[in-house]
Design a protein that fits this description.
The complex is a heterodimer. By secondary structure, chain A is mostly helical. Chain A is 75% helix and 0% strand. Chain A has one domain: MetI-like fold, CATH 1.10.3720. Chain B folds into two domains: 185 residues, Rossmann fold; 67 residues, no CATH class. Helix content of chain B is 37%, strand content 21%. The N and C termini of chain B lie close together (8 Å). Classes of the chains: A mainly alpha, B alpha/beta.
Chain lengths: 285, 278
C-alpha cells in the first residue's frame, strides 16, 4: 500500500525498491517545535509567578524547582532508585506473565471461557481498594514486595488482553497455508501466531509500562510511611511539610522517569516492527 | 437439460493430454463427492472429476457453485461429507492418508508481512523441517521462475499486488508439487497485470511440469489458459458440463485475437448460460 505508488508497474526487470528521501529539515522542525513550546510555557510560568506575586507555597517558579532539584539530588536519586526498582520489576513481571497467560488462555477455547471473566474482574477492581489487604498479607516487613505486587496488578491486564487479541488475529489465509503443509501446533504458534501477535504485544507493553509507573506511585501512596522511600512518598512527605518546591522536584523526576520508560518501549517497538508493520511506516500520498 | 454430467465427462476424458499408459492413470480421482455444511447448505453434489498429470484444467462457474469448495477438498482442506477422493499415483501413509503433493494459491497472496520474500517462499520447507541452507538453491530457482530474483530480501509491503501474487505462486511451487491448485488468484488484480500474469503462468506451468487446477469466474481467462474447462452450476454445487480447448501451447497474444479463441469463448459462455439458468 505505501510503496505501491513508486512501483506502479508490475515490472519484473525493475531492480530495487525506491526508498523515500529523508527530509532532514522537517525532522529538525519536528524536534524544535515541541521544545520551543515547552520553553515558552516555562517562561510564562516564571514570569506570571513573579508578576502576580504567587506565594512559593502555592506555586513555586520553575527556577526554584530546578534549584531544589539540584540541591536535593542525593535524596531524589535514592527515591528514584526505589521507585524505579518497583516499576521495572512490576513491568517485567507483567510482560512475562501477561504473555504467558495470554498464550495459555487462547490455546483452548474452554480455558478462555473459564478464566476470562476473572481476568476482567481483576481489571475492573480498583487496586487501591485491595492495597491495604495486600500490604497486610505480605507483611509490613516486606513492603517492597507488596508494592511490586500492587504495581504488577495494575500493569498486568493490558498485556494479557493484548496478547490474547494478538494470538487470535492471525490471518485466516495464512492459517490455511499452515494447515495445507500440516504444520504442528508448535510451528503454527512459533511462525504464525507469535509474529502476528507481536504488534499487539508491543502496544500492550507500552500501555503496561505507563501503568506500572502509576501502579508504583499508587502503591507508595497507600503504603505511606510504613516503609516506602520512593518518589511518590517523597511527594506526600513534602506536601505534609509544605515544601512545595521539593514536591515539584520529585514530580519532575517522576515525569522524566516515566518518559524514559515510554521512549525505551517505543524504540523497542520501532526496532522490531519498522520493516513490516503499518504502524511504523510513513505514509506518502 | 440434455447436459447430463456423465455423458459429457465421458466424451471429455476420451482425450487426455498425453496418452501414454502411465499418464492415463489420473493424478486425482474424485468420485461422488458431496459436501454439506453444518447449516444444511449443499455446497457440492455428486462431484465426479478425474485430473490427469500435466493437465491445465479450469473450474468455471457463477459464485456459490462450489468451485472453491471443490478445490479445497482436492487440497485436503476441510472434510467432505460423502464419496471418495483417490490419489492413484501417490503413496498412502499408515493412517490411510494420501501424500498429496499439492501447492495452493489463494485469492489473496496470504504472505507473512514480517518475513522477506525469501522467507515467505521458504515457509513450506521450514514447516517440513528442512534447513534453509539445504533448500536455498531451490528457493532462488523458484523465485527466478516467477521473475522475482531481485526481490528476495524485500518485504511484502514493498511489492505491488501482482508481485505479491508471484511470491504466492513461488511459495506454492517450492515443494515441487504434482498438483498446483489456484483459487481465483488473479481476481483482485487489474486487467493489465492479470493478462501478464496469465501469460507468465502458462510459461511457469510448462517449465514446472505440474498439473494446474484453476478456479475462475472469467470465461476469457479459462479459455486462454486451460486445456479442459469444467463448468459448474449453483444450488446445489455440481458439474454441468465440460469442454476441451485443443489450441496448442505456447499460447500468445495472437491466440487471444484468433477466431478459434472467440469460438471457444462463445461455446463456454453458452454452457455458462445453461449453468446460470439451471
Amino acid at each position: 500500500m505505501t510503496v505501491e505508488a513508486t512501483l506502479s508497474v508490475d515490472d519484473r526487470t525493475e531492480g530495487q525498491v525506491a526508498k523515500p528521501e529523508r527530509k532532514s529539515w522537517t525532522d529538525i522542525v519536528d524536534a524544535v517545535l515541541p521544545l520551543a513550546a515547552g520553553l515558552f510555557f516555562l517562561g510564562m510560568w516564571e514570569f506570571l509567578v513573579y508578576y502576580l506575586k504567587v506565594s512559593k507555597f502555592i506555586l513555586p517558579p520553575p527556577s526554584a524547582i530546578v534549584k531544589t532539584f539540584i540541591a536535593e539530588w542525593p535524596t531524589i536519586f535514592v527515591a528514584l532508585k526505589y521507585t524505579a526498582a518497583v516499576t521495572i520489576g512490576a513491568f517485567v513481571a507483567a510482560v512475562v506473565s501477561g504473555i504467558f497467560f495470554g498464550v495459555l488462555l487462547t490455546s483452548h477455547r474452554r480455558i478462555e471461557r473459564t478464566f476470562w471473566p476473572y481476568a476482567v474482574t481483576m481489571q475492573v477492581t480498583p487496586v487501591v481498594a485491595i492495597a491495604p489487604l495486600v500490604i497486610i498479607w505480605v507483611g509490613l516487613d516486606r513492603v517492597w514486595l507488596s508494592m511490586l505486587i500492587l504495581a504488577w496488578m495494575v500493569a498486568f491486564f493490558p498485556m494479557l488482553s493484548n496478547t490474547a487479541v494478538g494470538m487470535n488475529s492471525a490471518d485466516h489465509g495464512l492459517l490455511n497455508v499452515f494447515e495445507l503443509y500440516e504444520a504442528s501446533r508448535w510451528k503454527r504458534f512459533r511462525y504464525l501466531q507469535l509474529p502476528s501477535a507481536l504488534p499487539y504485544i508491543l502496544a500492550g507493553a507500552r500501555i503496561s509500562s505507563g501503568l506500572s509507573v502509576i501502579g508504583a506511585v499508587v502503591a507508595e501512596f497507600v503504603a505511606g510511611s510504613g516503609g516506602s522511600r520512593g518518589l511518590a512518598f517523597m511527594i506526600v512527605e513534602s506536601g505534609t511539610l509544605l515544601n512545595i518546591p521539593r514536591m515539584f522536584s520529585a514530580l519532575l523526576m517522576l515525569s522524566i522517569f516515566g518518559m524514559s520508560i515510554w521512549y525505551i518501549t517505543a524504540s523497542v517497538q520501532r526496532l522490531l516492527l519498522h520493516r513490516w508493520h503499518e504502524s511504523e511506516l510513513k505514509q506518502e500520498n | 437439460m440434455n447436459y447430463s454430467p456423465a455423458k459429457i465427462v465421458a466424451s471429455g476424458s476420451a482425450a487426455p493430454p498425453m496418452e501414454t499408459e502411465k499418464t492415463r492413470k489420473p493424478l486425482v480421482r474424485a468420485q461422488h463427492v458431496n459436501k454439506t455444511y453444518s447449516n444444511g447448505t449443499v455446497a457440492l453434489k455428486d462431484l465426479n472429476l478425474d485430473v490427469y498429470p500435466h493437465e491445465f484444467i479450469s473450474l468455471l462457474g457463477p459464485s456459490g457453485c462450489g468451485k472453491s469448495t471443490a478445490l479445497r477438498i482436492f487440497a485436503g482442506l476441510g472434510a467432505y461429507s460423502g464419496g471418495t477422493m483417490d490419489w492413484p499415483q501417490s503413496m498412502y501413509d499408515v493412517s490411510g492418508k494420501p501424500e498429496r503433493e499439492v501447492g495452493f494459491v489463494f485469492q489473496e497472496p496470504t504472505l507473512m508481512p514480517w518475513a522477506t520474500v525469501f522467507d515467505n517462499v521458504y515457509l513450506p520447507h521450514r514447516l517440513k523441517d528442512r534447513p534453509k541452507a539445504e533448500v536455498a538453491d531451490r528457493v532462488r530457482e523458484v523465485l527466478e521462475l516467477v521473475g522475482l530474483s531481485n526481490f528476495a530480501n524485500a518485504y511484502p509491503r514493498e511489492l505491488s499486488g501482482g508481485m505479491k501474487m508471484r511470491v504466492s505462486v513461488a511459495r506454492a511451487l517450492v515443494t515441487r508439487p504434482k498438483l498446483l491448485l489456484m483459487d481465483e488468484p488473479f481476481a483482485a488484480l487489474d486487467e493489465i497485470t492479470r493478462t501478464r500474469l496469465s501469460n507468465d503462468l502458462l510459461e511457469i506451468w510448462s517449465l514446472a511440469k505440474c498439473t494446474v487446477m484453476f478456479v475462475t469466474h472469467s470465461v476469457f481467462e479459462s479459455v486462454f489458459l486451460s486445456q479442459r474447462i469444467v463448468v459448474m452450476a449453483a444450488r446445489p454445487g455440481r458439474i454441468i458440463g465440460e469442454l476441451q480447448v485443443n489450441a496448442p501451447y505456447p499460447r500468445t497474444k495472437e491466440y487471444r485475437l484468433s477466431s478459434e479463441y472467440s469460438e471457444h469463448c462463445r461455446e463456454v459462455s453458452g454452457l455458462l448460460d445453461v449453468a446460470m439458468r439451471s
